[in-house]
Design brief:
Length: 346
């Protein structure tokens, strides 16, 4: 692919910034705000030496004060703020999806409706426009607000292939009455992609997103896909994830070759206070400049195994574990909290 083509870059492409939408007392995080803020601070610490961080928050002064008490002056220079009211913190799904082009980045603003109208999202759906109004990012703004699309529902290999799940993109209250074919056409046009691989299987208990691809299977360099594997036949995920694994084995690259598959371990079951299983997954990692930030869940055996496997998928990246036990309480994890931007977006 020519570097001059408009395309959605792979996540391991060079990045100029990463967005975090900060938790606050007006969100569902209120009961465990201190714990979840600690997780966000850990992400800032890991990112600030590698990439600029844009923090979206209704309270920039208090967040700046918190970070000033923790970070060095050098790392603080890597942080800027966008003041905006927010419903929640899932930047992956309400942030810009950004294309590379010969002239400047193209900032795609899709509609975010709380994963099919499950949760309030009116404020989060306005964040991209507030960022544009405040000139936080450089690039061409494109309005796609007539189409629902979350960043966690798509993966790009940077070569024209998009990986997604039919369960999410065809789920109720997303883009009905559009057919699968119509949705595919719209995606290909908006993302300047060549083809879409539809994953028809994949399930995590407690998932609110209707099977986002970033909880199940992720593109990695050199035609590799890292994916969640379940080996326990007594686990409720076994049948569905086995079918997903078989379908991944059937996929071919745009050149017609099988993908190199790297299985990630199934996270040890995590439950909420009511005894319901939460969607802990090692597939929800963030790739940034020279590093992979990987969620950990307080289980040394599976955490270490996931790190070993991700090192196979990203042999030239540092693998950095971030304790995401607070995040999983609200049914999300590390990748869900972040959104990256390519070069020249700042």
């Amino acid at each position: 692919m020519s570097n001059r083509e408009i395309h959605l870059p792979a996540e391991w492409h060079e990045q100029s910034a990463v967005q975090l939408t900060w938790p606050h007392a007006g969100t569902d995080w209120q009961p465990i705000l201190e714990d979840v803020e600690r997780c966000y601070v850990d992400m800032v610490k890991a990112l600030s030496s590698r990439v600029h961080i844009i923090i979206v928050t209704p309270e920039p002064e208090s967040v700046r004060e918190l970070l000033e008490s923790i970070l060095s002056a050098e790392n603080l220079k890597q942080i800027s703020f966008c003041k905006a009211p927010t419903n929640d913190t899932w930047a992956r799904d309400h942030g810009f999806i950004t294309l590379l082009s010969p002239n400047c980045p193209i900032l795609l603003d899709f509609k975010f409706n709380g994963w099919g109208e499950k949760f309030p999202a009116d404020l989060d759906n306005e964040i991209c426009r507030r960022m544009a109004e405040q000139n936080i990012l450089k690039g061409k703004y494109e309005d796609h607000l007539d189409f629902v699309l979350e960043g966690g529902s798509i993966e790009s290999d940077g070569k024209g292939t998009i990986l997604t799940t039919s369960k999410c993109l065809l789920a109720p209250h997303r883009n009905q009455p559009l057919t699968k074919e119509q949705i595919e056409t719209r995606l290909l046009e908006a993302l300047h992609a060549k083809r879409i691989l539809w994953l028809d299987y994949g399930y995590l208990a407690g998932d609110d997103t209707d099977s986002h691809i970033d909880t199940l299977a992720r593109f990695c360099p050199n035609d590799t896909i890292a994916y969640v594997q379940c080996l326990d036949k007594d686990d409720e995920h076994y049948a569905e994830l086995s079918k997903m694994e078989a379908q991944l084995k059937s996929f071919r690259t745009i050149e017609g070759k099988p993908y190199r598959l790297v299985p990630l371990p199934m996270a040890k079951a995590v439950y909420d206070e009511d005894g319901s299983r939460l969607p802990a997954t090692y597939a929800n990692f963030l790739v940034t400049n020279g590093a992979v930030l990987m969620p950990t869940y307080g289980n040394p055996d599976t955490d270490l195994k996931a790190e070993e496997q991700l090192s196979k998928a990203f042999p030239h990246h540092d693998i950095i574990g971030i304790d995401c036990q607070p995040l999983i309480i609200q049914h999300g994890s590390l990748h869900c909290c972040t959104m990256q931007f390519p070069p020249k977006a700042l």
